[in-house]
Design brief:
Number of helices: 17
Helix content: 55-70%
Order of helices and strands: HHHHHHHHHHHHHHHEEHH
Oligomer: single chain
Radius of gyration: 25 Å
Strand order of the largest sheet: 1-2
Strand content: under 5%
Bound molecules: protoporphyrin IX containing FE, copper (II) ion
Distance between the termini: 28 Å
């Protein structure tokens, strides 16, 4: 079929390039996606080690492994890392990898901006972690990292309460990460709205694409709020302004409002991509279409809107008054409704399906069960009076790990097992995948269910040690053993991951009998993705190219050759090998532009002239980028 590919120049050469330089200059969404995911995995190990340090300290009463100061810094870095450097970039990595493939596009709308996002993220993450080394001799336990918790409540983060550079690194690091996130969000929105293959109407988009779209809107609207708050904090800390200084008349609640107006949409930024992944994986392994597609889509959109109206549930105990508390209590209870709708749809998808319990499905099941517990505990603290008891206890810690780890991370791991073959051409070992799942699932429950009990027994969060006779010893010890069980599971995963990249069983283009377009092209996909842009006729387009229903409504494979009727072959055999396809040329300008950001930040902290240097570096990058020939190659 003559679906014109809009072809101009030769582009099929660069994809064979490898080596460091090709990674530094890549603008290919798949490579950028891989960079995101691998970087996030590295940060996951860092954040995981921090978690183990916390659990070693708390394993027994009167712990002496960490002093109180180091403890504060380590749990702050743990939370900040897991949220901003692990789950967000892992989700962004998946969006990068999959969005263009799923909508039948050759890349995102702005490939260089995409590279800029990645480099800004990486520099922001490194900058944040560099804070560890600013406190003196790190080998003598003098850590310089921030100590204000992941939500960094001002005025506690002002100079007088948190001297040193830790908070400075935190606020400037998050600022850089926010720039990366916003650039990514705009890119994904434009890509989704403008670059879908012919025939792919909005309501034919795969669920993952829908959730990525909602997430992207949350990104571009939520990050500016924290950006403003961080700017104000920067002015307070560096230029002696008084935005958050109660002694000068500032409201001590200003930060909390701004933070949580960002923070609650943020938790949906963290969970919606995982919702999308689970909604892709379950139908494939249940061999049924997603149950109630429009409900899953619109409940996701509803969550996106409602997430803006619940922030003060983090502030019930600050004295907003009973009217505000009631209003936010009700809105918080309501947001559980669209969330519950999704859970029922996932169950409906599996109901009556012939489910094959491969590793991706196991992680989805882990996701559904753990996330449901997480959501329900959320409902328990949406009730104001009960939250008065729960706030700042380990019950809250249990809740958000239940949704973030049991939810988001399990969902993301389902995605790793599911799409690994697409991007490497090889399968992850199924046996070791199952071992990984069970270690992580059991370890997870051992770690976090005891925290529910501890919280209800009154153990406050953020304490670095606790006395002996409170009855908390056993549960804390179990939680620590659970954490090491998780670590063992992650070790199994890492070995499996590294071994399978080289030695895994070859997967072919479509190992799971997939439903969406990415499975219609070779694994790994050629750098131009689709030799011919596909024409889309339905939801689950690729499935419908492979199967038709017989007279009883049972799907039977399309006879060989008949698939041509749907518009193109989609069987991975592309006759022209993409020789005529024009792709954007690699560029190092995005990297240079992003490198300006940490230089400005360092200048703000140590020597103002460096601010100018950073600005010039950034501008040189942007200037070079703008002047790059459009033609490429
Ligand atoms: C059914 C949906 C949910 C409800 C009703 C809910 C409700 C709540 C409430 C009321 C709080 C405040 C508790 C307190 O501090 O006293 C809270 C805290 C929190 N929730 Fe949820 N939640 C839900 C889903 C989620 C999801 C999906 C995530 C993330 C993926 C999440 C992450 C968090 C985090 C990180 C905190 C604690 C922040 C902190 O204090 O450090 N929640 N949740
Ligand atoms: Cu919230």
């Amino acid at each position: 079929m003559a679906v014109s590919a809009g072809t101009i120049q030769h582009g099929a050469t660069e994809h064979s390039e490898s080596g460091l330089w090709s990674w530094l200059t890549t603008v290919d969404h798949k490579r950028i996606g891989i960079l995101y995911c691998v970087s996030a995995l590295v940060f996951f190990l860092v954040g995981g080690i921090e978690a183990l340090l916390i659990r070693i300290q708390l394993a027994q009463p009167n712990g002496t492994f960490l002093d109180q100061d180091s403890y504060n810094r380590i749990f702050t870095m743990h939370g900040t890392t897991m949220i901003f450097l692990v789950i967000m970039p892992l989700s962004t990595g998946f969006i990068n990898l999959l969005l263009p493939l799923m909508i039948g596009a050759r890349d995102v709308a702005f490939p260089r901006l995409n590279a800029f996002s990645y480099w800004a993220f990486l520099f922001g993450g490194i900058f944040l972690n560099a804070s560890f080394f600013t406190g003196g001799n790190i080998f003598e336990g003098e850590l310089g990292a921030p100590d204000g918790g992941w939500f960094g409540y001002a005025p506690l983060t002002l100079n007088q309460y948190s001297p040193g550079d830790g908070i400075n690194y935190w606020m400037l690091g998050l600022q850089i990460l926010g720039i990366a996130t916003m650039a990514g969000g705009f890119n994904f929105i434009v890509t989704t709205l403008n670059m879908r293959a012919p025939g792919m109407s909005l309501l034919r988009m795969p669920l993952f694409v829908w959730m990525a779209l909602v997430t992207s809107f949350l990104m571009i609207f939520a990050m500016p709020i924290i950006a403003v708050a961080l700017f104000q904090l920067t002015f307070d800390r560096i230029f002696d302004a008084n935005f958050f200084n109660p002694a000068a008349g500032a409201s001590p609640l200003l930060w909390q409002h701004m933070f949580w107006l960002f923070g609650h949409p943020e938790v949906y930024i963290l969970i919606l991509p995982a919702f999308g992944i689970v909604s892709e994986v379950l139908p494939v392994f249940s061999r049924k279409p997603l149950f109630g597609y429009p409900f899953v889509v619109f409940s996701g959109v509803a969550i996106g809107f409602m997430s803006w109206g619940v922030w003060a549930h983090h502030m019930y105990t600050v004295g907003l008054g009973s009217i505000a508390n009631s209003a936010f209590g009700i809105s918080t209870i309501l947001i559980a409704v669209p969330t519950g709708v999704k859970i029922f749809n996932w169950m409906g998808t599996m109901w009556g399906g012939s489910i094959s319990f491969k590793t991706p499905v196991m992680f989805c099941l882990g996701f559904i069960t753990m996330f449901t517990i997480g959501g329900l505990t959320g409902v328990t603290h949406s009730m104001v009076p009960s939250d008065y008891q729960q706030q700042d206890t380990y019950y809250i810690v249990a809740h958000f790990h239940q949704v973030l780890f049991g939810g988001a991370l399990f969902g993301l791991f389902a995605g790793v097992y599911y799409w690994f073959p697409k991007f490497t051409g090889r399968m992850l070992s199924e046996t070791w995948g199952q071992v990984h799942f069970w270690l992580m699932f059991i370890g997870f429950n051992l770690t976090f269910q005891p925290m529910m009990i501890l919280g209800l027994m009154g153990m406050p969060r953020r304490i670095s040690s606790y006395p002996e006779d409170y009855g908390w010893d056993l549960w804390n010890m179990i939680a620590t053993l659970g954490a090491f069980t998780i670590a063992l599971g992650i070790l199994v995963f890492l070995i499996n991951f590294i071994m399978s990249i080289r030695n895994g069983e070859e997967s072919g283009p479509d190992p799971w009998d997939g439903r969406t377009l990415e499975w219609s092209i070779p694994s790994p996909p050629p750098h131009y993705n689709f030799a011919k842009i596909p024409v889309v006729h339905s939801i689950d387009e690729f499935w419908h190219r492979k199967y038709v229903e017989d007279s009883k409504g049972i799907p039977v494979p399309v006879p060989k050759g008949a698939a041509i009727a749907t518009g193109d072959h989609g069987d991975g055999h592309e006759e022209d090998e993409g020789h005529d396809i024009h792709m954007p040329a690699p560029s190092y300008m995005p990297l240079i532009a992003a490198a300006g950001l940490p230089i400005v930040a360092i200048g703000l902290l140590y020597a103002y002239p460096l601010i100018a240097v950073g600005a010039i570096v950034g501008l040189v990058g942007l200037y070079g980028w703008v002047l790059e020939p459009v033609g490429g190659d």
